[in-house]
Write a structure and sequence with these properties.
The chain is α+β, with helices and mostly antiparallel strands and about 375 residues long. Helices cover about 35% and strands about 25% of the residues. The protein is rod-shaped, with a radius of gyration of 39 Å.
Length: about 375
């Protein structure tokens, strides 16, 4: 009897897997004709799961632990094989070990074919981005059925291209639906990464996978957008396109002033020179000797309406020059009040609007209101 026990123990199978590759996702245990004997010892280590395949169909799945294979711990195979009273002979089954650890530092990046997204401020913009991500297998049976199939040694490289395409597509969809302004993207990489991960994981789960971490290392803009951002930064504003247009116009006038030919260029240069002097600490402080005193102009007829141009101090910044009709509109819109500082050619310094002859009447509290229509 002791001899029989010794011979029986020599027939007991030991089924296990130690992974030394670090990039293997699925490994098939090698068996001669896939025969497994009763009482075989199965060892499933941490970060592993063992999947038994019977005649091409996923059967029992084992989590980490040590098992002696009997009908009690193989309910699905027992049902498929019709083992009503147990079994004593070898049975055929394929055993696949699936690595469930996190596969880290997987790269992703957009290409030139990455579709543009719509931004409220800049319209359609084509962005580029790159980073890395971490994924793991959450459903070994589904992963084998949907991805690896009967491959006996399935690695990360074999699925990396497909995963990268899924990541890039999910990144584009998430950007399009996030409604985060383009100018705010650079300061929200962590929040955006969490949003993208949550957006794309449902599709990954359909393959038995999960993205556990998603990192954005960089998002780059087209050169035209970079130039626009740099110019807006130099103004110290974000988002006010009206002021941006005025800033662009001022740049054009400054460029024209540098043109040595023409009286018009000289006139623009004088106005822009004075404006830039105020912004740069009044570098040009020479008094205007030819400027007449206000008292000497009392008998001079007022300028033709609409011909006077004035500079206006708005939010601590010099703006203009504006024609009178524009200034009237700014007063109606409460962008200019009686204490707003203004300056025009001939004035020695900035003064409140209520003290400027052309504007003071507009702020006179004793002036009756306009007559109602039809009177």
């Amino acid at each position: 009897m002791a001899l029989w026990d010794k011979l029986k123990n020599e027939f007991v199978d030991i089924i296990d897997w130690t992974d030394g590759s670090q990039d293997t996702i699925v490994w098939r245990f090698p068996r001669h004709q896939n025969e497994i004997k009763y009482g075989a010892q199965l060892t499933v280590r941490e970060s592993q799961m063992a999947v038994f395949i019977n005649e091409g169909q996923v059967a029992d799945v084992f989590e980490p632990g040590m098992y002696t294979l009997t009908t009690q711990n193989m309910p699905i195979l027992t049902t498929l094989k019709g083992w009503k009273y147990g079994f004593n002979s070898p049975f055929k089954a394929e055993v696949y070990f699936v690595n469930t650890k996190n596969f880290i530092d997987c790269k992703w990046g957009t290409t030139d074919s990455f579709p543009p997204i719509r931004d409220k401020e800049f319209g359609m913009i084509r962005l580029k981005g790159h980073g890395n991500y971490t994924f793991r297998v959450t459903d070994p049976g589904k992963f084998i059925k949907e991805v690896s199939g009967t491959d006996g040694h399935f690695t990360v490289d074999e699925v990396s291209h497909q995963l990268r395409d899924m990541i890039v597509a999910g990144f584009g969809d998430a950007l399009g639906s996030s409604n985060i302004p383009v100018l705010d993207l650079l300061g929200n990489f962590d929040e955006l990464g969490q949003f993208v991960k949550a957006k794309m994981n449902p599709e990954f789960l359909s393959y038995g996978l999960e993205v556990t971490k998603f990192f954005i290392k960089n998002i780059s803009f087209p050169e035209a957008i970079k130039e626009a951002i740099d110019k807006k930064s130099s103004m110290g504003i974000l988002g006010d396109l009206n002021q941006y247009a005025q800033f662009q116009a001022a740049n054009a006038m400054e460029a024209a002033a540098k043109n040595p030919g023409g009286d018009a260029g000289a006139g623009i240069g004088m106005g822009m020179g004075f404006a830039m002097a105020n912004q740069m600490g009044k570098m040009y402080t020479q008094p205007q000797a030819a400027a007449p005193a206000p008292a000497a102009q009392e008998n001079v007829p007022p300028p033709i309406p609409g011909s006077v141009s004035m500079f206006v101090a708005i939010d601590g910044e010099q703006a203009g020059p504006f024609k009178m009709d524009t200034i009237l509109s700014m007063i109606d819109e409460n962008r200019i009040d009686k204490d707003t500082l203004v300056w025009k050619k001939g004035m020695s310094d900035w003064s409140p609007a209520k003290e400027v002859p052309n504007l003071s009447a507009l702020f006179d509290e004793n002036t009756p209101p306009p007559l109602p229509p039809g009177q």
